[in-house]
Design goal:
With 268 residues, this protein is an alpha/beta fold. Helices cover 43% and strands 16% of the residues. The strands form two sheets. It has an eight-stranded parallel barrel, surrounded by six helices. It has a two-stranded antiparallel sheet with strand order 8-9. β3 (77-82), α4 (94-104) and β4 form a beta-alpha-beta unit. α1 (2-20) packs antiparallel against α10, α4 packs across α5 and α5 packs across α6 (154-164). The longest helix is centred in the first third of the chain and has 19 residues, at 2-20. It is globular and about 50 Å long.
């Protein structure tokens, strides 16, 4: 009996270790990116999310190639790249930008909020076209739930992804954004419906129902422990994206975010 208990504990530890290996740190653009990257390396994090400033101006912008080469040299994977919202990439610039990101080794690209005023009937066709561009570039586009605007809930996002039904279009699940809408991320948004089948990225953000204010992961109403446990039980191999506390220097904020993530993974 003790041997069985020890084996179960070892299996759980292995799950937690594997989940920690899929942490993804935000990498800001601008003059401080090298300093930020040093902190990522110091914490043993092996993947980064390229924030929107990196993608602005692609494919013409060529200085970013130095950053991509540096990441490859250091064994850091540029797992996700965020497309800018203001101004957004035009339809003509998107395919070559996706191709450039794919050459860097980026596997997933986060879409900005959709254009205002989109009709529900037009939405599947719009995202099916984007998914086709992503498939041609060999990347996956990610749709993220947000505190305002579409999608209002997990059912809307999951329904759209099921309607499009393309492997090149998936979801980035932001629990704190659901909390801001007074919704239970796990019980009402994850468990029912098809959304859980399309998640490629879980943001480790937490918030309070009272006012939507963000708090340290595990200290709010985002049900992060339940979400991580359920995803791992389903054989999840996607990313856990760290979020830096507001107002904190990058180094201190990233270390705090990693510690909070480790505490969650230790409970698996």
């Amino acid at each position: 009996m003790q041997q069985m208990s020890d084996l179960n504990r070892e299996e759980k530890d292995a799950v937690g270790t594997a989940a920690l290996a899929r942490l993804c740190a935000p990498l800001p653009a601008g003059s401080q990116w090298r300093q930020a990257l040093r902190q990522v390396i110091a914490l043993g994090i092996k993947a980064v999310e390229l924030l929107p400033g990196w993608v602005q101006g692609l494919p013409e912008r060529d200085g970013i190639a130095d950053m991509a080469a540096k990441l490859i040299q250091l064994g850091i994977r540029p797992a996700i790249a965020d497309l800018p919202a203001d101004p957004p990439l035009g339809s003509a610039a998107l395919p070559p930008a996706l191709a450039t990101l794919a050459r860097w080794g980026v596997g997933a690209v986060l879409l900005p909020p959709e254009p205002e005023g989109m009709d529900d009937a037009d939405r599947p066709r719009y995202y099916r076209q984007l998914a086709g561009m992503a498939s041609d570039a060999n990347v996956t586009l990610l749709l993220q739930n947000r505190a305002s605007g579409w999608p209002e809930d997990g059912a809307s996002l999951g329904g759209l992804l099921a309607a499009v039904n393309q492997s090149s279009l998936g979801a980035c699940f932001d629990p704190a954004a659901f909390v801001a809408r007074k919704r239970h991320p796990f019980l009402s948004e994850f468990l029912p419906g098809p959304l859980k089948r399309y998640i490629h990225c879980l943001r480790l953000r937490d918030a309070l129902f009272e006012d939507g204010s963000e708090v340290a992961p595990g200290h709010g109403n985002a049900e992060l422990q339940e979400l991580v446990s359920a995803l791992e039980a389903r054989g999840y191999r996607g990313w856990y994206c760290l979020a830096l506390p507001a107002g904190q220097p990058y180094a201190a904020g990233l270390a705090q975010a990693q510690q909070a993530a480790a505490a969650i993974m230790a409970m698996l």
